[in-house]
Amino acid sequence: MRFFIDMISVLRRSIVSPLLFLAVAALFLPSTSSAIDARFELDPAQVKMESGVSASRSNSKHKRTGRSHRSAKKHQTGMALHKSPLEQPASTLQLASYSADASAVQNVQKIRSFWNTLVPSGETALPALSFKSDTFELAIDPARYPLLKAADGGMILLDKDASLPPLVRTLLQEKDSKIRVVTASPSDARRFLGALLGAAGFYSVEEQPLMTFGTDPQLKVRSDFKVERSADSVMNNEVMLVNASQQGIPIRLAEYLKTQGLKVSEPFADQVHAAVPLRHRVVRAAPQGQGQAVDLVLETLAVPVERNRRVELFKAAETGVGLSVAADRYFEHGGKRYVVTRFTGDPIAYTLFRLLETKGYRVVILEPQDSFKTAAGKLLSRMDLPSSYASHLLLADPAGRYSFEMSGFMLENATAGGGAVMLTDRPIENAMRDLLYDHGYQVQER
């Protein structure tokens, strides 16, 4: 009998102890399944008050069975959203407070200044967002969530830190359909600008457009975005090029684009393109004849030249016969002798020119129809220098935002400092000369 009594006692302790442990744990340990974001936590005092009201109703139910549902609503708790804890009433839906650092404030200022060039805000600033109803009161801190005016009359709310609660987003969209929330960080400048421009309601936003100016020379410009605010933007010269890079384009290039009806905006650019020391030359030729074309090439190469010289083919002292040939130009370069002459169709003169070659002269024969390109190409070819008249890339931005190319003869290492020389007959407008100058090219007219 005692054995059965002991067994019952052991079973009772084995069942009661775990239950007692669970009860204690439930009192002192929080449950993860019921955890609530502190930003949306109701005031415990208000919850207690509401519970007390419910209990009171339960205890006195037999006395107030006829009370209407509308009367019961008077005891419901309203919820409000405030910028700081000091403004909270007894029961609130609180958004976490925000303290902006200097860099964040500076970014907001840059964004507002940039946006004002696209969508002028006017004299009156947009009021802070706030909504109030019987159920909730909502106020948005403009320091943390800047509000911008959209091109189509709407409003853009910037959520730079992706910290806007989904509940608040839903409330905003339900209260005002014109409010568009853009969630993007300025740290990824290109993505941020793309999201912002896409929500603005512009007439046209083109991504990565490539624009060309001229044919030869040709300037190519690529921007991150091209914005047309309205259908008349092109006619009114109001097209905006927006770049997200921190390195700004050259000032002279921006000035040139402005003359073409394109305004450049770079909200995050804090570095200005610095001019490059002069090292290269672009010699622009406008010769009146073949002789001037030859003189231009030789002058560019700093080669002394003699005009209208008689070159001896045979010396009377050696053979008893003296024979000389008329040369338009004679010069020496790299230990070799050169003769430049013109062919007029005389077969005897042509034979004499070929005889000069047997004597070690390098002969350049020009024909009446030879242009600057042809005459200069023949001369450079005989001098074993690059003789291809082709399009050459003179400027190329490392980020691919702009480039400049032009046709001519490119002579590498043709200057004392190892710089290049471009020989061309193409016209170069002043704006392009300035751009070349900033990139180390000195443009000379001949």
Can you describe what's shown?
With 446 residues, the protein is of the alpha/beta class. It has 3 domains: 97 residues, no CATH class; 62 residues, no CATH class; 172 residues, no CATH class. It has 12 helices and 21 strands. The strands form 5 sheets. Strands 8, 9, 13, 18, 19, 20 and 21 form a 7-stranded mixed beta sheet that branches. Strands 7-10-11-12 form a 4-stranded mixed beta sheet. The radius of gyration is 42 Å and the shape is rod-shaped.
Structural domain tally:
3
**What Rg is obtained from the alpha carbons, in whole angstroms?**
42 Å
User: What is the share of helical residues?
Assistant: 25-40%
Q: What characterizes the major β-sheet? A: 7 strands, mixed
**Class by helix and strand content?**
alpha/beta
Low-confidence stretches: 18-98
Per DSSP E runs of 2 or more residues, the count of β-strands stands at: 21
Strand content: 15-25%
Number of helices: 12
N- and C-termini, Cα separation: 130 Å
Shape: rod-shaped
* Average pLDDT level: 78
